[in-house]
Design a protein that fits this description.
alpha/beta; 6-stranded mixed beta sheet; about 45% helix; 13 helices; elongated
Length: about 300
Amino acid sequence: MHTVAVLALDQVIPFDLSTPIEVFGRTRLPDGRPGYQVRVCAEQPDVDAGAFTLRAPWGLDGFDGADTIIVPGTADPAAPIGPAVRDALRAAAGRGTRIASICTGAFPLAATGLLDGLRATTHWIAADLLAAAHPDIEVDPNVLYVDNGQILTSAGAAAGLDLCLHMIRRDYGSAVAADAARLSVVPLEREGGQAQFIVHDHAPTPQGSELEPLLTWLQGNLNRELTLADIAAQAQMSTRTLIRRFREQTGATPLQWLHRARVRQAQHLLETTRHSVERIGAQVGFGSPTAFRDRFKRTTGVSPHTYRRSFS
């Protein structure tokens, strides 16, 4: 039997805490034996979970002998962790313990230095903050989870469930993991490289700026096959000036902005209509179905058909 220690920090997100407890706690081997012993550990017995206070049965000594430690997300990712927690996580890593974070649990894990030099993820809305606070980490906001072997990270709460099932599959194989997935009423087959389903907002453009009319025009002409020269002519700028000012005000080139706007509109149409993928690609301005599928998958990580099955 494997032992999983779940760390409860102050302001822990209850769903992130309960997910590994439920998933690992319900896992059964083919002969009916439990696959895991689960320990809830904390520095202090009482933990502030926001809406309620919980009592952890184990102290940090619960990490001793654990095969896996889970660091759930916290409501305040910028909050510092205490030296006792930091040292306990580092000591566990030194013993070879597998350590995984869920959602913003990447922040306390990052504070230990254990993610330095590694690729990692967190909830997409906090990815920029993680990258800014820890420049030695390669933050990838576009995946469900990242498995570096001993150290693993996941995106939002649902991706934390995917990560737990992935670890069960690593420990006991696909049959046991599939059974755990059925008990959780989720599919087993979502892979870590699948993109988080993010609506890619554009950087805000100040009202009254010189680009505001141009962006409005672009949004209204997504169905046209626009070139950089077309956009520059509409803006009455040279292409070089257009690219420079676009980067300054939106963080993207004109064509990058246009591609993202088209994919975003395609996401909306896939969710709300039954139009064919080919028709949607034409509606949002891609010259061919192949070009649409390629750009959509490059941006979201999944095909238009897969996106529609998930969100229509």
